[in-house]
Hints:
Elements: H1 2-39, E1 44-57, E2 62-67, E3 72-76, E4 82-85, E5 88-90, E6 100-108, E7 111-120
Parallel strand pairs: 3-7, 4-7
Antiparallel strand pairs: 1-2, 1-6, 2-3, 4-5, 6-7
Amino acid sequence: MKTLTTVACILAATTSLLMAQVPAQKSREMQSAPKKMAAMPMKTHHMSIEGEVVSVDTAANTITLKSKEGKTEILDISKVTVIRKADKTIQLAEVSAGNKIMASCKMDGTRKYAVSINVKSPVRQIHLKK
């Protein structure tokens, strides 16, 4: 009987210690929650933009364009952005003002990250002699 009482006391003491640790652990988790939320990426969605290049900034890795709707848009270019012209992959420095482009982007908050850009070839005008 003495052994059973000792085991019961040890079990009760262990349970009390464990229960005391649970609120402390929850408190630490609650304090770290804002940091975890800040580190999480914002919800992104995909979009397409078509327009004319106004400027290219190779130092900042951005393209500024005027969309078909007349809005000025800034596209962030990363190392994984694929830029193509006439079925060839080109570099950002080869894009210039006046080029017509179609871009597929990920929008993260207010920033637009270009995933792929298709530089349209200019339409050649042929003048026929009469």
